[in-house]
């Protein structure tokens, strides 16, 4: 059984980072997603091996010159057969190419037009360049990642690009597709990484309003490594474990398994004045055993414990192996699609494709006559990697 979005057709205008991630998620969910690459990206015949970029998995690739009049016309023909289009250019670029939302919606009034930017389609920053680190800074997120006495620590580019960006774009597109199925009308989805990153901070805005989060004291709060019972600790072999024993019953289990149940100082779990010293004491305790030894003691208990694993270690861990959290496609280990569905099981449709690898077959499958496809290739409006 195909994934829950089977039957939906989506056009992805090629970009980097959050756009391809959103397209990957939609393809993982069963949608037919075609990636429209720049014609200039085609360097010759597609290599025999799959492209190495996992974010490109699950979709075919067509190369179109969007600066060529016939290339624009071709894309608009595809739009007529699409349910959604996603793009990640700066505001105004799609309009200047002649394929902005007004033009596309005129050709297909039911189209969902998903837009992915860092700053959004409007606002003083909207035309400025930026990256994840900048978006999560302005969103009020980056300031709160880091330890006491240290500067902010960027959490890779997961919060802005992928959590606040690509994930929100995919959610927005799915929501708009659901609405369009009822109203018969499409719309524009303005996804900004700064907006999504701000939403991801919602719980901490709540904590702040409740007086249980000090936004001016990074690394001293409950969930930002301030607490001794919510942090990572180094073991005797140099590896790390994670502890998240927040609730009293889980904290009691932590104390039992570390031999601290009768320690009066550790009984003061929520006394922030004790946290620094208690963390120093736990640091000493966890440094007495290897990570594997602590796993033997704490795994499968209610301590709220897990070893801190690298990507390769995570792929080999028995829990992830049993659940098939990671799969191999074309010889490349990668995360499997998520979430999981009981009836419309999702799967990776194909390995990542090369630019222009499927130009001819995609155009034909989407209703363009073979003689016209030949003419488009001949004119340079589209390119096929052959």
Quick summary of this structure?
This protein has 386 residues and is of the alpha/beta class. The chain contains 15 helices and twelve strands.
Query: What's the Cα radius of gyration?
Result: 25 Å
Instruction: Tell me the fraction of residues in β-strands, as a range.
Output: 5-15%
Question: Segments where pLDDT lies below 50 for 5+ residues?
Answer: none
| Corresponding CATH architecture of the largest domain | 3-Layer(aba) Sandwich
Mean pLDDT: 97
CATH evolutionary superfamily of the largest domain: Crotonobetainyl-coa:carnitine coa-transferase, domain 1
Query: How many extended strands?
Result: 12
Number of domain modules: 2
Give the CATH level 1 class of the largest domain: Alpha Beta
Specify the biggest β-sheet.
Answer: 7 strands, mixed
CATH T-level topology of the largest domain: Rossmann fold
Q: Work out the helix count.
A: 15
- What structural category do the secondary elements indicate? alpha/beta
Distance N to C terminus: 33 Å
Overall, the morphology is elongated
Order of strands, main sheet, comes to: 6-5-4-1-2-3-12
Query: What sequence of helices (H) and strands (E) makes up the elements?
Result: EHEEHEHHEHHEHHEEHHHEHHEEHHE
State the helicity in percent bands.
25-40%
Written account of the structure:
This protein is α/β, with parallel strands linked by helices. It is 37% helix and 15% strand. The chain is built from 15 helices and twelve strands. Helix 5 packs across helix 6, helix 5 crosses helix 7 and helix 6 packs across helix 7.
